[in-house]
Amino acid sequence: MTLLRVVAGEAGPTLHTQRCYLRAPTMADFPAWATLRATSRSFLEPWEPRWPDDDLTRTAFKRRIKRYQREIREDSGYPFFLFRSSDEQLLGGATLSNVRRGVSLSCSLGYWMGEAYSGNGLMGEAVPRLLQFAFRDLRLHRVEAASIPHNERSIRLLEKAGFVREGFARRYLLINGKWQDHVLFAALVEDQVIRPPLMVDPASS
C-alpha cells in the first residue's frame, strides 16, 4: 500500500490553494487536456521533450493515464492536473516524479501551464502546495527541479517557492529535440520550516 493511499484514499488527494486545486488526471480530462495542449503547443514546445506524432490522441492519453496509475501504485510518481476553483477550468499540470526512498527520500518536480493562464501566479500557488504534499504527506526530504537557463519565468517561480540554486548541468535533458543545459535547484524539508505556513486542505482541518 502506497503512502498516497494511506493519506488520501484510492482516488488520490486533492490539494487546494487560494484560487486552484490539484488532483490526479483521469480519462474524463482528455477533451480539456487535448484542447489546452493544442492551443498552447507553440508556447510549450521550446521547454518540453519533443511531442510524439500521436501525442494529442485519445489512445495516447489512455496510455498516459495507465502510466500515471502505475507510478502512483508503485510510489514512483505523483501526477497532478491544475484546475481553477471558480469554474474547474484546466490550467496546466505538475508531477512529482522519480520518487526515491531509502537514504535519498527525494523526487523531481516538473510542471507546465497553458499559454492563456501563464503569468497569473497560479502555478506559483501550486508549487508550494506540492512541496507541502511532498514533505508532509510523502515524507520526502528533498525535491529537485531544473530549468533551461533562459527560462527566466520558471527560474523566478522556483526561487519564489523556496528552491535554492545548486548547480549547472551541461546538455542535461533532450528538450524539443536538442540537448539543453539546465540550472539545477532543490528544496529541502528544512528550508520549509522557516517559510510561512501553506493552506491546509478543508478535509484535513
From TrEMBL:
Membrane-spanning intervals of the chain: none
Record-level GO cellular component terms: cytoplasm
Documented EC number(s): 2.3.1.-
Key word Cell cycle present: no
UniProt enzyme class: transferase
Keyword line: Acyltransferase, Transferase
Keyword Acyltransferase applies: yes
Residues covered by the N-acetyltransferase domain: 20-190
Domain of life: Bacteria
One Gene Ontology term of the molecular function aspect: protein-N-terminal-alanine acetyltransferase activity
Family (UniProt): Belongs to the acetyltransferase family. RimJ subfamily.
Name used for this protein in its record: Putative ribosomal N-acetyltransferase YdaF
Gene coding for it: ydaF_1
